Amino acid sequence: MQSIMRINCKPFTCLVVIAVFASSPEPSQGTVVEPVRARHAMVVSVHELASQAGLEVLRAGGNAIDAAVATGFALAVVHPQAGNLGGGGFMLIRLADGTAHFLDYREKAPAAAHAKMYLDRRGQVIENKSLVGYKAVAVPGSVAGMAYARKKWGKLPLARVMAPAIKLAKEGFALSQMDCEALHDEELARFPESRRIFQRDGKFYEPGETLRQPELARTMERIAANSDDFYHGSLARELAAAIKKGGGLVTAADLAHYKVKEREPLKGSYRDYQVLTAPLPSSGGIVLLEALNILEGYYVAGMGNRTPQFIHMAAESFRRAFYDRAEFLGDPDFTKIPTEGLVSKQYAGAWRQTSMDAEQATPSASLKRPPNFGVTRQRSAVNLRQEPTDTTHYSIVDEAGNVAAVTTTLNDNFGSRVTADGLGFLLNDEMDDFTLKAGVPNMYGLVQGAANAIGPGKRPLSAMTPTILLKDGKPFLVLGSPGGPRIISTVANIIMGVVDFRLNIQEAVNAPRFHHQWMPDKIYVEKDFSPETVAQLKKRGHTVEEDGQWSDGECIAIDLKTGDRLGASDIRNNGKAVGY
Ligand code: GLY
């Protein structure tokens, strides 16, 4: 099929290109799959029991925010890899009254943290110190965030909202094959409390066996009775004592000083849709909008879904947005960040005109920013580090039209692997999301700059991207995913799947993924891409690496004609969309 693609690229390379695309989609694109349809409300998460917890609370008269809190606490029980009490997260809310809110309950560095805390005497990063064990732990925000959300926007008492999670912890739940495989984590075995609870002291759980967590149930009952106890009461003292005993830095004073922040959601648009997304300290919204703004100048639909031309152009947009991420982004309470410039349509236009090449990859090392957009180079140090991928996202729409998109994390799978003694919950390793040292890639291979250096009380830069799209002011898509930096390309691809390629939400979530993050300079592709597609990308100058499967889109679309809620849980995992 022949398509005409309008391209605004380097002035002397082209203005209009008539291109012949092999618009035949990748093989796995052929099957039509339908989302779960419900008339009134929908909850979608990575675990059926967590989705059911949200649904139970909706049926009991709660709204989307009550359900978000119920699902969040339930995930801490049934998905200990990422669901948590000992981590942090972001909740994006669009209420039926048209207001939008963003809750930042990201973890904070403890007061004793400092820029060189993960370096040895020679200035080298000490392997795993920011990832495994007590020193990796930042001050957790999840309990404060969920309690705050329920109190401000929920309708039901906290004890009611937490009841399903407490029951799951007390009575236990049957483990799936996937759960059991995850619990074989070698690092968990290093910490006796984690080994005892999650690995039965080496007698590993088999699929179908019941995992009961009485200590966690007790902790949750205490939170349900008084959530403030986690930060100012006996729970805070017990947690601080457990961390101190293990050699960590988080103190009772750090817990007492923890504050949830309400931030203005980041707003933008993609074609005819308004986008509400995550502001700093997540890089997610900025990178998402910058990449989509660049792509908006092209006739993406004409390129064909998952064709080499589309993948090339999308990857080039991600490359540029991630380049800016590396250079500029960090905690906005500590550093001035040029957000407005980065997400402006003019800046995206300048990228298209001065830099994007429709035919050939631009090597990351030679990338140059368009001048004169207030987005100037600020500092020389950039950090090439990887970020962990193990987070979880859930989406909720209630009967009244309130919407919650929540992404929460311990950072790495099971976080630091430390279970707080006697309290039954895992602690994060979110300190690894800071820049540990300029020039050293983090767990996700991500490049980060001085704006994200460790400092007492700072929040590490995140990639979590809870996002809501509106059409004519009405909620249309509720989106998010885990996957570290791949969260952002996953969300962008689901948006383009629905908006540009007219996929239904389930097809868009299932579609094969690709990702570029500037450094390392390569396109990562899921295993489903054909050798021809990979060869075509290589011909354009890309290094291509096949990397299995990743991320976990747990998303909802709202049928704009009927109002039906359409739930899409990712085929890659055991999640579930449930509604009524
Ligand atoms: N720790 C993963 C993220 O915040 O992006």
Describe this structure in words.
The chain has 580 residues and is of the alpha+beta class. It has a domain at 2-26 and 265-386 and 464-557: Serum Albumin, Chain A, Domain 1. 31% of the residues lie in helices and 18% in strands. It has 18 helices and 23 strands. The strands form six sheets. A seven-stranded antiparallel sheet has the order 3-22-21-17-16-11-10. Strands 9-6-5-14-13-4-23 form a seven-stranded antiparallel sheet. A hairpin with a 5-residue loop joins strand 13 (391-397) and strand 14. The longest helix has 21 residues, at 308-328. The protein starts with a strand and ends with a strand. Mean pLDDT is 92; it is low at 1-29 and 378-388. The structure holds glycine. Glycine binds next to loops.
Summarize the structure.
By secondary structure, this protein is α+β, with helices and mostly antiparallel strands. 31% of the residues lie in helices and 18% in strands. It has a domain of 241 residues: Gamma-glutamyltranspeptidase, large (L) subunit, C-terminal domain (Serum Albumin, Chain A, Domain 1), CATH 1.10.246.
